[in-house]
Design brief:
Layout (H helix, E strand, L loop, with lengths): L3 H12 L8 E3 L2 E2 H12 L2 E4 L1 H4 L3 E2 L2 E4 L2 H9 L4 E6 L2 E6 L48 E5 L1 H6 L5 H6 L5 E5 L7 E6 L2 E2 L2 E4 L2 E4 L19 E8 L3 H4 L6 E7 L7 E9 L3 E11 L6 E12 L8 E13 L5 E9 L1
Parallel strand pairs: 3-7, 12-15
Antiparallel strand pairs: 1-5, 2-4, 6-7, 8-14, 9-10, 10-11, 12-13, 14-15, 16-17, 17-18, 18-19, 19-20
Helix pairs in contact: 2-4
Length: 334
């Protein structure tokens, strides 16, 4: 046992030879020379690409407590890094890191699919297909939304004119332009019978005047948008048929006072007037109302015909709490 002790001491001395050179001190000099000197002091073999260190000046090493601290001082500002693998000191290019400028993401709260005042021909969301307020991209059916801006710009003052501008809808309209007699729409080979007003399913015969499907009674002056969902919607909205579903979203009271009057004229002595007024009824704005009225009259291609059509719509909203609102509305057409 006495003969083994000197041999063991010699091995431990060899393994600890790197620590015996600390602290490290070196003057500023060429980087290749400084790395060679430090590697020899630490008892390591230096491996690097000469082109990486050529022409670079190394900083001085002052009282570095260990080899890692010495390398950090030596390679500062050179774009290089060092790592030790066994008895080898490897110097290589340090990975480049970049700090990108801050990105600020902002968004506005969706207004429940309302399009009035946006000036847009599309909508951010609609609940016509699924009952959920989803974007058009998230809606799992073919949907066309005719916004208030498009209704105004293209003078789509009746549901028949909206059908004419909707892909996938075949519209059958017979009779005079004002107070039309027969009106119906077809999609995918079936007649459209499913209508929704503000998300509530209403049979088309509920407002029928003279038409098969009641389309002659629908004046777009009172609507914020009209969405046409092609295909069956029964599994998602609770009612529907294989053709399509028509979702009518009526105008809502505004938080600020607004009023407008429109007058238009057309062929066959047709005249149309629309009045729209709404706003808050109290100082807090918790009670709001809106009234919309439209009147059409005129002749037709048929001699000695004179027809008229009128619609009036009123709505009252009251905020009963932070998350509770009472809405009362009345619509009359003739």
């Amino acid at each position: 046992m006495k003969r083994c002790k000197p041999l063991l001491a010699t091995v431990l001395l060899a393994l600890g030879s790197h620590a015996s050179a600390a602290p490290f001190d070196q003057p500023a000099q060429a980087l290749d020379l400084a790395l060679g000197q430090l590697a020899r002091a630490a008892g390591l073999q230096l491996v690097t690409n000469p082109t990486l260190v050529a022409g670079q000046q190394a900083r001085s090493i002052s009282n570095a407590p260990d080899l890692q601290a010495a390398l950090a001082q030596l390679l500062a500002g050179t774009g290089l890094q060092a790592r030790i693998e066994g008895d080898t000191l490897i110097v290589e290019t340090a990975p480049r890191t970049a700090t990108l400028p801050a990105v600020t993401v902002s968004a506005t709260h969706e207004r429940g699919g309302r399009t009035e005042g946006t000036g847009s021909y599309t909508t951010g969301s609609t609940s016509a297909a699924s009952g959920l307020n989803l974007s058009l991209r998230e809606t799992p059916q073919s949907v066309t939304v005719v916004t208030r801006q498009r209704l105004d710009d293209q003078a789509l003052d009746s549901i028949e004119k909206v059908f004419e501008q909707t892909p996938g809808i075949y519209h059958l309209w017979t009779g005079p332009a004002v107070g039309g007699s027969n009106s119906s729409a077809y999609a995918r080979g079936y007649r459209v019978n499913s209508y929704q007003i503000d998300g509530v399913t209403v049979p088309s015969d509920a407002w029928a005047l003279n038409g098969w499907g009641g389309g002659a009674a629908l004046d777009t002056a009172i609507y914020d948008s009209i969405a046409i969902v092609r295909g069956a919607t029964g599994l998602l909205s609770g009612a529907g048929d294989p053709s399509a579903s028509i979702s009518l979203i009526r105008k809502r009271p505004t938080h600020e006072f607004q009023a407008s009057v429109e007058q238009s004229m057309g062929r066959w002595s047709q005249r149309r007037s629309v009045a729209d007024v709404g706003g808050p009824l109290n100082a807090a704005g918790s009670l709001r109302s809106r009234l919309v009225a439209a009147y059409d009259e005129g002749g037709s291609w048929s001699d000695r015909y004179q027809g008229y059509h009128s619609v009036a719509y009123g709505v009252l909203e009251a905020d009963l709490g932070d998350r509770t609102m009472l809405t009362l509305s009345l619509e009359h057409a003739r």
